[in-house]
Amino acid sequence: MRAEELCHALGVEIGSVDLDQKNVPGLRTLLSSCLGLVAIEASSSTVRLVHFTLQEHLLSNPTLFHSPHSTIAEVCLTYLNFESVWDLSPTLDSALLTLPLLEYASCYWWKHIKTGMAKNVKLLALKLLDSFDQHISAQLLLLRYNKNRRSGPYFNAGEGPRGFTGLHVVSFLGIVEIVAGVLEMREWNVNATDCMGSTALTWAAGKGYEEVVKILLEREDVDPNQADTKYGQTPLSWAAENGHEAIVKILLERGDVNPDHIDTLYGRTPLGWAAEYGQAGVVKMLLEREDVNPDQADT
Amino acid sequence: MSSFLLVSLNVEAILGEVTNGQRRKKLEEMARGNGLSDAYTETVTRLKGQKGNKSVLGLKVLMWV
């Protein structure tokens, strides 16, 4: 973690509505309070434990910290919910200079709730997700996604995250812990498409989040066949392409999912996608169906 | 690296004691102890014993890093 990120993280007062610069500790105070257990890497100004054996030591004494992940999530979410952060335009690049913790908080808050969260942490998360597509953290998260994607950027940063709602992001990241809370939070159009042309179900099915898929499919108003507007692939098509067998099974068992839908961009069926990517299990499942044409060529 | 680290943590711990007698006792404890792990435990204990919010800050840093 970079030094200025850490200083800001330690300067966040839980329950406050904005950052008070006076509460941000100085680096020297911070280092001296650790009695030499923490060092700073001069070349990158990264703060680290003095030796890897200290990490092992700390991990073998888990009682030292009280629910650390929930605490870190609370700090990240408090930071993201600061009034001055909500006021930022989602496409503003320069915000990272004055708010060093912004990128870390945007990209990792959700990982820290995976091991459980306190009730107030959940409330902070829901507050963020309520108008997520107008928040700068949506932009930062999708920029990170672009960067990590081997096949190139998927999100058009210039257009901003509009339409990438709280429901989309929980499906995109598979945050099963709060999907129900998000769905209850308000009236959603569960079939809405985001800035990348995907619905919540498209993301969850394509990325293999089985539990999220199940919860979304329980909704009466969900259209299980709705294709994304970029490639024209249905949720089944995405799950087949990526080899998520359990999800393919769930979708096929419904009875109202078209198993042989031809998408618009490549003119290919789910079987075509599964075959191309060598998803043997999915191919088998699809070939067992009488309503799947095994000879269907791309159109 | 790790042997220098042990020495430096131990010297700090010895200097943390106020009388020569206590320092000698600490030194003897260290000679019996099993190295880094004990030194870490000792340092974390000292860290927690710092006055005011310094102990809170120190623990928080260890949690984040």
Strand content of chain A: under 5%
Radius of gyration of chain B: 13 Å
The beta-strand count of chain A equals 2
Record field, number of beta strands of chain B: 0
Helix content of chain A: 40-55%
Mean pLDDT of chain B, nearest integer?
83
Brief summary of the model shown:
Chain A has helices spanning 3-11, 27-32, 52-59, 68-80, 83-86, 95-98, 102-108, 119-130, 136-148, 166-173, 176-185, 200-207, 210-217, 235-241, 245-253, 270-276, 280-287; strands spanning 38-41, 46-49. Chain A is mainly α.
Description:
The complex is a heterodimer of chains A (299) and B (65). Chain A is 47% helix and 3% strand. Chain A is mainly α. In chain A, strand 1 and strand 2 (46-49) form a beta hairpin. In chain A, helix 16 (270-276) runs antiparallel to helix 17. The longest helix of chain A is centred in the N-terminal third of the chain and has 13 residues, at 68-80. The N and C termini of chain A lie far apart (50 Å). The mean pLDDT of chain A is 94. In chain B, helix 1 packs antiparallel against helix 2 and helix 1 packs across helix 3. Chain B has helices spanning 2-15, 20-32, 36-48, 54-64. Chain B has one domain. Chain B is mostly helical and 65 residues long. Chain B is built from 4 helices and no strands. The chains are: A mainly alpha (299), B mainly alpha (65). Chains A and B meet through helix 1, helix 2, strand 2, helix 3 and helix 4 of A and helix 1, helix 3 and helix 4 of B.
Describe this protein with a few key phrases.
heterodimer, A: 299 residues, mainly alpha, two-stranded antiparallel sheet, elongated, B: 65 residues, 4 helices, 78% helix
